[in-house]
Amino acid sequence: MLTFFLVSGGSLWLFVGLLPYLTLVFNRVCPLTSGEDADTGDPEDTATA
Questions:
Q1: Backbone phi, then psi, for 40, in 5-degree steps?
Q2: Distance between CA atoms of 49 and 34, rounded to whole angstroms?
Q3: Is residue 7 scored above 80 in pLDDT?
Q4: How does pLDDT run across 22-36, given as a tens digit for each residue?
Q5: From CA 46, how far away is CA 28, in angstroms rounded?
Q6: How far is CA 36 from CA 9, 28, 31, 42, in A?
Q7: Which residues contact 11 (CB under 8 A, 6 or more apart)?
Q8: Does the pLDDT value for residue 37 go beyond 60?
Q9: What is the C-alpha to C-alpha distance for residues 14 and 45, in angstroms, rounded to an integer?
Q10: Transmembrane ranges (predicted)?
């Protein structure tokens, strides 16, 4: 089921649909995180945080 969903391209639409929402929520919860992460220089921490 999951493999078929990924192959059908559903993952792309799901990612595109959730990206703006997740970004908005992340910015609301931690508005200063982007600046602090830039100081640390760890892009992976920004993606996982």
A1: -75, -30
A2: 10
A3: no
A4: 888 888 887 665 555
A5: 15
A6: 35, 15, 10, 10
A7: 5
A8: no
A9: 23
A10: 6-26
Distances (CA, A) of 23 to 3, 10, 28, 38, 40: 26, 20, 9, 17, 20
Alpha-carbon distance of 41 to 18, in angstroms, equals 26
Residue 37 · residue 45 · CB < 8 Å? yes
Q: Over the Cα atoms of the chain, what is R_g?
A: 14
Residue 18 Cα distances to 4, 27, 34, 36, 37, angstroms = 20, 14, 19, 24, 22
Write the single-letter amino acid at 32.
L
The residue type found at 37 is D
Of all helices (H) and strands (E), which one includes residue 33?
Answer: helix 33-40
